[in-house]
Amino acid sequence: MSEEKNKGSRLKDKVAIVTGGAQGIGRSFCLGMANEGAKLVISDIDLEAARATTSEIEAKGTEAIALRTDVSRPEDTQEMARKTVEHFGRIDILVNNAAVFGRVKISVVPFYELDLDEWDRVMAVNLKGPFLCSRVVFPYMKAQGGGKIINISSATFFKGTAIFTHYVASKGGVIGLTRSLASAMGEYNINVNCIAPGRTLTEDPSDQSALQRCQHQASFRSFKRIEYPEDLVGAVVFLASSDSDFITGQTIVVDGGAIMH
User: Fold this and answer.
1) Taking residues 179-188, what's their average pLDDT?
2) Can you name the residues that pair with 39 across neighbouring β-strands?
3) Is 188 known to be catalytic?
4) Beta-carbon neighbour count of residue 218 at 10 Å?
């Protein structure tokens, strides 16, 4: 699918951090938000990939910087917030997208065969990561009078699955975290919402195994087609913009109508 859209201004001059922003869904978020006028911080554990996405954004005439961040490490998240404010002067939007699943393969096994160290790693990145990142941007958003935090969960949480239990549990935790933070941050004019994507084709389309899995999932949807990263951009732009100023604590499922939530 094409990532080119008519340029807009719904996020003009807003400063947005996207964790896991170098590739896949995160990259599409960055390109889509830049297209709406946002200045981007591409925060990713893969610095070279983050720099490549930064170059793409800069080529379109929008300012962006790349930062290497392991969201499971408190010191990394603190440095991410500090460098963002040092460079741009503020933080308006945080998209907690970084997760262990796509690029970092996880075990697809029954719960009783899961390696406990892998369980801890998934929880550290997928659940502790959004908590740490939200915590470090909060003082800046509070001081400037508001902000937007968007967490990325998964539609898998709503139906459950007999495999990758640690992933499903972590994404359920993200929805719980969203609701708790929304309650805590509302008095400071900070919106906290969540997007739950369906199975999205983030791999190269030539990956036949991934393509077949996505095609299988498409059969359960109201819209009988594969979901692409670009399908999620509208939701993230909406939640990052003033259009959603009176919405908080909510989860939007974007999966083509497989889960009716």
Assistant:
1) 98
2) 15
3) no
4) 18
Question: Average pLDDT for residues 20-47, to the nearest whole number?
Answer: 97
- The answer to whether 41 touches 85, Cβ cutoff 8 Å, is no
Dihedral sign computed on CA atoms, order 84, 146, 131, 195: negative
Q: Which of 166, 156, 155, 25 is nearest to 98 (CA)?
A: 25
Instruction: Measure the CA–CA gap between 190 and 248, rounded to whole angstroms.
Output: 8
Q: So what's the pLDDT on residue 6?
A: 63
All structural domains of the chain with their residue ranges: 15-201+229-254
Angle, alpha carbons 232-199-172 (nearest 5°): 85
Mean pLDDT, the chain, integer:
93
Under 8 Å between Cβ of 1 and 227:
no
One-letter amino acid identity for 38? Answer: A
Q: Give pLDDT tens digits for 144-180.
A: 999 999 999 999 999 988 888 999 999 999 999 999 9
**For the domain bounded by 15-201+229-254, which CATH number is listed?**
3.40.50.720
Q: Which of 112, 140, 167, 228 is catalytic?
A: 167
Average pLDDT score over residue span 232-258: 97
The beta strands (E) that lie in 80-222 are given as: 93-96, 147-152, 190-197
| CA dist list (Å): 217 to 25, 195, 211, 225 | 17, 18, 10, 9
Q: What is the pLDDT of residues 89-98, one digit of tens each?
A: 999 999 999 9
